[in-house]
Amino acid sequence: MTRRIALFPIWLCILLLLPALASAQDIKVITNREYFDVVHKAIKEAKNSIKVMMFEVGYYEEYPNSPSNILITDLIKARKRGVEVEVILEIGTWPRVDDKNRKVGRILSKNGIKVKYDSIFVTTHAKLLIIDDRISIVGSTNWTYYSLTQNNEVCVLIDSKEVACKLGEYFKKVWESG
């Protein structure tokens, strides 16, 4: 059942975005370890805005150079160079996930990043980034050690203002309900 739930949002997003996908300038499939490099680069190149929606994000003090720590640091650096950064994290589903997400939320908030937690009455299982209202990355990868280094994961990068706009509307709806 977990696998079906994990894949459903990807297919739902793709079905809802089919008309917009027709106008996409570039679509790239990202698998496994490719994800970190693609996202790391995209965040570093962001000029105006970054929106992140994640089910689970882990920050590991004992491993300062872990991939998720680097992505969190990338968000902080983006904010410091003037990029608007907003992050939605899951809360209320699993104590382990809640603890990780609250910790990351505190780190990001201390560094001027807007953080919201979803409603405790709904699970936000999405893994979504929207960069500069143009680049969207959606798929299965959480920002945790195993997702970024061990698991089989798949995401899609879509270079399309229209797709980013539709996903941005979804992001805003979840943001407002948090």
Automatic annotation (TrEMBL):
Q: A Gene Ontology biological process annotation?
A: lipid catabolic process
A GO MF term: phospholipase D activity
What's the EC number here?
Answer: 3.1.4.4
Pfam families for the chain? PLDc_2 (PF13091)
Q: Which residues form the signal peptide?
A: 1-24
Q: Which domain of life is it from?
A: Bacteria
Which reaction(s) does the protein catalyse, per the Swiss-Prot or TrEMBL entry? Answer: a 1,2-diacyl-sn-glycero-3-phosphocholine + H2O = a 1,2-diacyl-sn-glycero-3-phosphate + choline + H(+)
UniProt enzyme class: hydrolase
Instruction: Give the keywords, sorted.
Output: Hydrolase, Lipid degradation, Lipid metabolism, Signal
Hydrolase is among the record's keywords: yes
| Family classification | Belongs to the phospholipase D family.
PANTHER family from the entry?
CARDIOLIPIN HYDROLASE (PTHR43856), MITOCHONDRIAL CARDIOLIPIN HYDROLASE (PTHR43856:SF1)
* Name of this protein: phospholipase D
Recorded source organism is: Aerophobetes bacterium
